[in-house]
Amino acid sequence: MTSKLTSPIVCCGPLSSTRSNCAMAFLTRIVAVAALFSFAYAGVSGPSAAENYAVAAQRAREHHQRAPLVRAAPDRVRRRGMQRRCKGSTPTTTSTTTTTSSYSTSKTWKPNDVTTSSTSSTTQPPKQTPGNPSSGGKKKAFAWGGSPDELGNFVNGHVGYIYNWRADPPQQDGLQAASMLWGWKNLDGFRQKRSQYPILMGPNECVPLDLLSPHKLIRFNHPGSTLTPRLLCPYLML
Amino acid sequence: MSVPDVVKLWNAEIRPYGTGKLLVSPSVTTATDGLSQLQQFFSTCGGTDNCGVCVLIQLFLNIILTDLFPLDQVDIISLHYYGNQASDLITYVTKMHNSLPNLPIWLSEYSCQRSLNI
């Protein structure tokens, strides 16, 4: 090794007659010397050059052994590997490929469904609210005004909830029923039934007092309601 | 039903019994500016009385409590829409969502308001 480092640069033979060939040979020798210096430095501070070479060769062999397996893998496997690195797109792709219904469970309880893009919504974890899983993530509901006996004719895999403006909506397999406290008129019934339902709905519609016209009183207040116009504090007047 | 009545019912009959349940907000419509009603509901739903002094105290406390427990008693916003323009419905729901972005929205009633005239 020492002889190589100290040996002079000799240009000889037919190709050595030109100046450019000599310059190229000089540069090649400089690179070789620099490489040897770095190799020698590595040998001083760490494993020997032979050990480094052996490790590198082993890694190379392992790499080449894996390569055919990767090339032979189906495209979906490689895509899945990429999705692990790209967290944003994973949930959407998974839900659309593994479910047969368009109302997938991964799409529930996303407050930003209306205005945000799919990318931003998939980065947020779905809101964990009680009662949600049993609905199967369905977004449709029955606002049911018919007979409970007829309800079964309309239940399918796309509807998850039911309410009927009352405290005791019909309970049907596959549907989560919401008990509504419509107002003062059904307070007693609501008190008796509210513990039996997983969803409680607040009063049906509220109207600011100063906007209550006789027409709106008829529309928004069921006969029997105890609503009476009252004098409220000024800051409560809407 | 007025907003103070709704608040009274909510605090007495729904909120205390909401453990383990989904609580859906009082429903509001476009017809009477539902957004301002919901905002007043959220700002006063800690109150139980309508007297002036009590409400002032409640409003003051709610400013503090809202920071500590923001909207913890409502899981879903319920909206009603009655109109005859799909674009108005989209605008209405979007406006509500932008105002209360952390809560999902249920459109629990909708209808073409002038359907009888078509």
List the helices and strands and how they pair.
The complex is a heterodimer of chains A (238) and B (118).
Chain A: H1 2-6, H2 19-45, H3 49-72, H4 75-85, H5 90-98, H6 118-123, E1 140-143, H7 148-151, E2 159-163, E3 176-180, H8 187-193, E4 199-201, H9 214-220
Parallel strand pairs in A: 1-2, 2-3, 3-4
Chain B: H1 3-14, E1 22-24, E2 28-29, H2 34-44, H3 52-68, E3 77-83, H4 86-99, E4 105-112
Parallel strand pairs in B: 2-3, 3-4
Helix pairs in contact in B: 1-2
Please summarize what this structure is.
The complex is a heterodimer of chains A (238) and B (118). With 238 residues, chain A is an alpha/beta fold. Chain A is built from nine helices and four strands; from the N terminus they run H-H-H-H-H-H-E-H-E-E-H-E-H.
Task: Explain what this protein looks like in three dimensions.
The complex is a heterodimer of chains A (238) and B (118). Chain A has helices at residues 2-6, 19-45, 49-72, 75-85, 90-98, 118-123, 148-151, 187-193, 214-220, and strands spanning 140-143, 159-163, 176-180, 199-201. Chain A has three domains: 2-68, no CATH class; 75-123, no CATH class; 133-201, no CATH class. The longest helix of chain A is centred in the first third of the chain and has 27 residues, at 19-45. Chain A has 238 residues and is an alpha/beta fold. A four-stranded parallel sheet of chain A has the order 1-2-3-4, with no helix packed on it. Chain A has nine helices and four strands; from the N terminus they run H-H-H-H-H-H-E-H-E-E-H-E-H. Helix content of chain A is 42%, strand content 7%. Chain A starts with a helix and ends in an 18-residue tail after the last helix. In chain B, strand 3 (77-83), helix 4 (86-99) and strand 4 form a beta-alpha-beta unit. Chain B is an alpha/beta fold and 118 residues long. Chain B has a three-stranded parallel sheet, covered by helices on one side. Chain B has helices spanning 3-14, 34-44, 52-68, 86-99, and strands at residues 22-24, 28-29, 77-83, 105-112. The radius of gyration of chain B is 16 Å and the shape is globular. Chain B has one domain (3-117). At the A-B interface, helix 8 and strand 4 of A face helix 1, strand 1, strand 2, helix 2 and helix 4 of B. Strand 4 (199-201) of chain A pairs parallel with strand 1 of chain B, so a sheet runs across the interface.
